[in-house]
Amino acid sequence: MKLYSIIAAGVALIAAASCCQQAEQTTGENQVIENIMSRRSIRKYKPVAVSRDTLQTILECGINAPNGMNKQSWEVRIVDNPAVMEEIQTMMTTSNPEAKPEMVKGCFRDAPVMVFIANDPSYDCSPIDCGLLSENIMLSAWSLGVGSVCLGSPIRFLVNSPEAMAKLGFSEGYTPIICIGLGYAAESPEAKPRDWSKVKYVE
Ligand SMILES: Cc1cc2nc3c(=O)[nH]c(=O)nc-3n(C[C@H](O)[C@H](O)[C@H](O)COP(=O)(O)O)c2cc1C
User: Fold this and answer.
1) Most ligand 1 atoms within 8 A of CB, residue of 151, 155, 195 to mutate
2) In terms of residue numbers, what domain contains 119?
3) CA torsion 17→19→20→23, rounded to 10°?
């Protein structure tokens, strides 16, 4: 009984010490917080490829995002070949005659890698799953020195282009929801202001 009490006290002490350590980390140097706070949307990229090894790490982080019931209700298609990127952009331009080619190309922001993400509209949490996957991709990319931008505008052209949709080959029932451009940044944008009035403690 005495031994049990000593062990319990020891465990409590270790738990208390690790709590203090956690509290200290958030106020001191913390690489996760630094990574989150320094990430910015990058809209100018160096014409430099991102290696498949680096992409693999980023995508591994992406699919390890929390997701509803672990359904992993996303599909992901990666385009890192400039010829394929151009082919998809041409398909999207042809299918959207109201859009000028520069408009379609421009919305990709010249990112050398494009990650297309589709959601499953039959599952109400699927857009959230895809959002969390996207954030894991962008933050892990940034931690490896790879810039990113979340892009909604190419989706409007993509969903109107049966050719581009066929090229990406999403499964039946999956609908593109967001793209993420990835590449090495050729700009360092300032942080945009955030509105703290939208955040309130409930007392
Ligand atoms: C759902 C979503 C769609 C977005 N679509 C675009 C887009 O089409 N084009 C673009 O340049 N940026 C797009 N962005 C990037 C936002 O403009 C950017 O995240 C926001 O201005 C905050 O800037 P920051 O990412 O540098 O903090 C999008 C972001 C999100 C989350």
Assistant:
1) 151
2) 52-183
3) 160
